[in-house]
Structures are given as C-alpha cells and as structure tokens.
Design a protein that fits this description.
single chain; 174 residues; alpha/beta; Rossmann fold; two-stranded antiparallel sheet; 5 helices; 35% strand; globular; binds adenosine monophosphate
Length: 174
C-alpha cells in the first residue's frame, strides 16, 4: 500500500537553482493520494475544538476547503493582496527576495473565534505567521496549524513557538 509521500514529486531547481520544489499536484491528481492526504490532515483535527478553517492561497485553499467541508465548518480564504472584494485587513511579510502582502476580509472572523490555519507546505513559516497575525488582529485565536508537508531544516517551529503545529510529511533539507 502506497503512502502519501509516494505521491509527492520533488522537482530540483524549481522555481530557481538550489530549491527542491515539493509538488502536490501529483497528490491531487490521484484519487488514492488525495484521499490519503486529506484523511491524514483531517486526523490532526480529531478532538479539537474550533470554529472555522482559514486556508492560505493557493494550495491551502484546496486542502483547507476540503477539510472544512468534511467537518461541516466554514472556510475562510487568506488571499494575496488585491483579490478580496470587501473591506480587508492586510499583513506584509518577508520573502527570500522582497515582500509579499496577504489579506483577509475584515468580517470573516469574529472576536473569540477559534481558527485552524491550513496550507500545503510550511518552509520558513513566514507566510503562516503573517496569516496568524491577521487572524489575531481580527480577534480570533489560532488553535492549530496543519500542513501536508514540513521542511524541517528551515526551522519554522522556532519562529512559531506559541502555536500548535502539525504536518503529515517531513523533509530534511530545503
Ligand atoms: P514559508 O513562508 O517560507 O513557510 O513558505 C510557505 C509557502 O511557500 C507555502 O505556501 C508553500 O506552498 C510555498 N513553498 C515554500 N517552499 C516550497 C517548496 N520547497 N516547495 C513547494 N512549495 C514551497
């Protein structure tokens, strides 16, 4: 029986030299791979008390929305700047080169809401940290962060010590 990691493709030197891109489209394309990924991520939420799931653009939408549906929870998109039509809050964060900005609708989270953050992959943790700050700015509480893949050598856990982080597949190296 195949494991979920068997469906992840590793592409050397994409999008630039030295980076190994962990491709999840090959997971999604396979009914078995997709089910293994969703079930394993969903298992991390067993027994957890939470109100909604926020997924990070764009692969976090796929996993986050599916898991929200499985648990009859609402799904909140955390989007790149300029995409959300209503009033937003925004947060900038550092990329390897330059800066990026993400946004959430201002009324998407009510004060006191317990929020689970989901993305396909955690590398440095910068993106999910910015998303967590947005949730907190709106008065929400981040009760867990769930990823399919964690690049452990980038030590996101050292940055995000106050959060409960779960990942299904862990890779050494970048
Ligand atoms: P970070 O903010 O460094 O944790 O980066 C996380 C975001 O960048 C996620 O949305 C990932 O999809 C993407 N990402 C970073 N590194 C990789 C990689 N090696 N392979 C695939 N996606 C990556």
């Amino acid at each position: 029986m195949k494991k979920v990691e068997d469906y992840i493709k590793s592409i050397p030197d994409f999008p630039k030299e030295g980076i190994i891109f962990r491709d999840v489209t090959s997971v999604l394309e396979s009914p078995e791979g997709f089910a293994l990924a969703m079930d394993a991520m969903n298992k991390e939420l067993e027994g957890l008390d939470y109100d909604c799931i926020a997924g990070i653009e764009s692969r976090g939408f796929i996993f986050g929305a599916g898991i929200a549906y499985m648990n009859k929870k609402g799904f909140i998109p955390v989007r790149k700047k300029g995409k959300l039509p209503r009033e937003t809050v925004e947060m900038g964060y550092d990329l390897e080169y330059g800066q990026a900005v993400i946004e959430m609708h201002k009324d998407s989270i009510k004060p006191g809401d317990k929020v689970v953050l989901i993305d396909d992959l955690i590398a440095t943790g910068g993106t999910v940290e910015a998303a967590a700050k947005l949730v907190e700015q709106l008065g929400g509480e981040v009760v867990k962060m769930v990823f399919l893949i964690e690049l452990v050598d980038l030590k996101a856990r050292n940055l995000l010590t106050k959060y409960d982080i779960a990942s299904v597949v862990k890779y050494e190296g970048e």
